[in-house]
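Its record is quoted verbatim for completeness.
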Amino acid sequence: MSTYRERAHRQTARATVLSAIATRERRSHLSAPRVPTVGIDIGGTKVMAGVVDADGTVLERVRTETPDKSKSPKVVEDTIAELVLDLSDRHDVHAVGIGAAGWVDADRSRVLFAPHLAWRNEPLRDALAARLVVPIMVDNDANTAAWGEWRFGAGRGAEHLVMITLGTGIGGAILEGGRVKRGAYGVAGEFGHMQVVPGGHRCACGNRGCWEQYSSGNALVREARELAAADSPVAHHILDRVGGQVGDITGPLITELAREGDPMCVELLQDMGRWLGVGIANLAAALDPARFVVGGGVSDADDLLIEPAREAFRRHLTGRGYRPEAEIARAELGTDAGMVGAADLARLVARRFRRANRRRAERAHRGAGFELRLPPRGRAARP
């Protein structure tokens, strides 16, 4: 009889443990452990890493130049490992999240292709996990930026959100119901390569007329340099600023001169904003989000870019006047969005890692015939 009671007691204890674990599995990102994690944003020119707490605050950041793309993938992995180990000397790091400028597979383990790095089907997650001995999360940099803005920035409160990242090209991400929509193969959100002008400018992807050829940092600089090279009278101011060196014209310089009221630079940003609005109207027709968040370095132009985009969006929106209009907001986290989002997504990975460890412990205790008592959580856990 006692044997039956002991067996019944163990079964009840096991059911209690599994019920508690299942409840925790259903909890949202808000229940992720409030531990510091490292977020890493890898671009074509820089690698930025930072320790981020559970409230999205960057406790410390370090930055280095991206190794030349002609070098082996291991060189970039060495750089990432060095930055993480450097931060780990001063912080108790529990997980690492990486936002990579490239296509990441649906399992978030491999970088299928990175245009600015020598990554081709690179098993980045496993390569770094073997060296850093903490949970590793890998995702596309636009996905991590969108997550960061949704959790801590301009995307807060939006159940249906689309992120547009304006940099050298155009990237993007989709969030619905608090989940990043990565697509069947992990490469959703490559909005920059939607064709908006058949037979238009040649794109680096091999096609013509891609959206990013008309509304990106590259497009902005190309237009300014063409006017300057043609010695257009409207370009005299910017030519004076670069001492006649057309190759020295950059996106930040164009934005700076536009803020100072230079007519050509203002017009270039307005043209870019109008193309941005056209593309956003197309995305609204397909995805119908409540909010678009525009980030990336080019978004520093703020209303010089965003206001023309809003006007063009209203003019080109299908069904205009008979449907609610999505909000278009500028990203709030700036260049930190990808790093903060990667760190926060890594926190979820850390939670799953901890949960797996607890399950292993539960199985071990069950096999030994003991009742597993879960440690208290929340307020009850505090001394």
